[in-house]
Amino acid sequence: MMTYLRRQGLRIGGFILLLIAYLSNSILLEFATKYASKNAGLANRFIGAMLIMVAAILVLYTWLYNRQLKRHNPRQFGHQAFNRHRLGQLLLAFVLMLAVQIAWSQLISHHLLPMPTNQSALDGQIQQLPFWNTVYGVVIAPVFEEYLFRGFFFNFFFSKNSPWSNVFGVFVSGLIFGYLHTMTFSVTTLFYASLGWVLAGAYLYFKDIRYSIILHFVNNLWAVL
């Protein structure tokens, strides 16, 4: 029992450290956004530091993820060839995510649900520093978040290939994904969690993290168009 608890403690600690690395990187972008209109030179230095950190985190995440799969990979995650059939299924997953967002926006427009509190903050950041906030939200964030909330999360905590592990893993993965987008438990958390559930389901179904990254990328791209 003590060995199991120690192992789980190390996994939780490792996951938190990987999450902190990602959040620290996003803070650099927040500082760049803050100083964009006040001190362009300082903002550019923050952007430079952010890009260096992005490269370092990407190398770390990719190496660690592939290392984990080599050690223990009962679901046979890897690179599944892209073909018309899989891309069609991926499109259906995007349509599902789009349906969730349309339904949610309709509930907001009819004053049945509140506007997400973080949305206005995100819109303000994009206005202050449009190019880098858009690039980060559309390209960088999907890669890091899929490694964290799908790849590492399942490898650390739900690595067994069983119905219980798959279903509960998808549920918890989406819930954490939703909470970290709102930093509070509210009805809006369920909105982001539902998107996380679709992404987690796609990761397990396609058995290739590139599919969930593409799905996440297309969804975020659609949101800024």
UniProtKB/TrEMBL annotation:
Keywords: Membrane, Transmembrane, Transmembrane helix. The chain crosses the membrane at residues 12-33, 45-66, 87-109, 129-149, 161-180, 186-206. Residues 129-221 form the CAAX prenyl protease 2/Lysostaphin resistance protein A-like domain. GO terms for biological process: CAAX-box protein maturation. GO terms for molecular function: endopeptidase activity. Belongs to the UPF0177 family. This is CAAX prenyl protease 2/Lysostaphin resistance protein A-like domain-containing protein. It comes from Secundilactobacillus silagei JCM 19001.
